[in-house]
Amino acid sequence: MQSPQVYKANALVEASYRLSLYEQRIVLACIAQVRRDESLTDQQLYTVSAQQIAEMTGTKLGTAYQNLKAASERLFERRVTLHEPPNGKSGGKVRLTRWVQEVVYQEDQGTVSLRFSQPMVPYLSQLSAQFTRYALTDVAKMTSTHAIRLYELLCQWRDAGKREVELAWFRETLQLEDRYGNIRDLKRRVIEPAVEQINEHSPMWVKWSQRKTGRRVTHLTFTFGEKAKATHQRARKEKAKGNPGTPIKNTVGALYGIPRAVIESKARPGEGYEDTALRLLSEAKQIAKS
């Protein structure tokens, strides 16, 4: 059975907004319920339960209950700034709107129901061109909202395998405002954790670099691609079994305990980032046995 799919107009993917982790989970779980063969209206109500969130993310049910209520209350106030209309038609307008027009929390059932605002409807339904699609399970286990946003931005350019963005635009899109003004803090608190979570939890591998204009970092470059399906499944199984060859916790700047610099230097032509790491682990085990 195919995992529920998230469809967003590219204009929404590149919109400027900030949602907490559970707000993201609620919104994405509801977007994934939008039928592709039916027109969406602002009268439709979408419901997600704490049980669904817990199962989807692998978290405890009690934790999901607690976070669901708080997130639903904040979600009503959240706004999004859209810089172009859906389907890529240029208009030069900036649209400021809300995600939802109504949120209903059913405490005895542990459910949240929401009704998308009317201006948001065209960005979620009947998308004929210029849209981004990915499976809800791709981001379900991520615990960084920045990782989810970055994953969407990369999926938008999935066929290209490379995306360069202006640092100022990246900050505005994630609504970082005056936080992490120092590039070192931005790397440590936003970029590196997001990249690590994408590599660990999604079917995509990604690595990144920075570009300077003069002495200032002005651009971020992301290179990415699809992991081999079998490799991705094997990595998840090894982690679930507590394989001694896989560390319990990856360190920032490393994958499966192997420094990024080592992985990049050992990568073979056409070999993915995680593929290289798993190959190096396998080779190390063979050496240890001999």
Q: What does this protein look like?
A:
This protein folds into two domains: 1-141, Orthogonal Bundle (Arc Repressor Mutant, subunit A), CATH 1.10.10.10; 227-289, no CATH class. It has helices at residues 10-13, 21-31, 50-57, 61-75, 137-140, 145-156, 167-173, 183-201, 229-241, 260-266, 273-289; strands spanning 5-9, 46-49, 79-82, 95-98, 100-106, 111-116, 131-135, 162-166, 204-213, 216-226, 254-255, 258-259. Helices cover 40% and strands 22% of the residues. α6 (145-156) packs across α8. It has 290 residues and is of the alpha+beta class. The protein is built from eleven helices and twelve strands. The strands form five sheets. Strands 2-6-5 form a three-stranded antiparallel sheet. The chain is globular and about 60 Å long. The termini are far apart.
Give a quick rundown of the structure.
By secondary structure, the chain is α+β, with helices and mostly antiparallel strands. 40% of the residues lie in helices and 22% in strands.
**Coarse structural class:** alpha+beta
Task: Report the C-alpha radius of gyration, rounded.
Answer: 20 Å
Number of helices: 11
Q: Predict the CATH topology of the largest domain.
A: Arc Repressor Mutant, subunit A
- Give the full name of the CATH homologous superfamily of the largest domain: Winged helix-like DNA-binding domain superfamily/Winged helix DNA-binding domain
Overall shape: globular
Q: What order do the strands of the largest sheet run in, or round the barrel if closed?
A: 2-6-5
Estimate what percentage of residues fall within beta strands: 15-25%
Overall residue-averaged pLDDT value: 85
H-E string: EHHEHHEEEEEHHEHHEEHEEHH
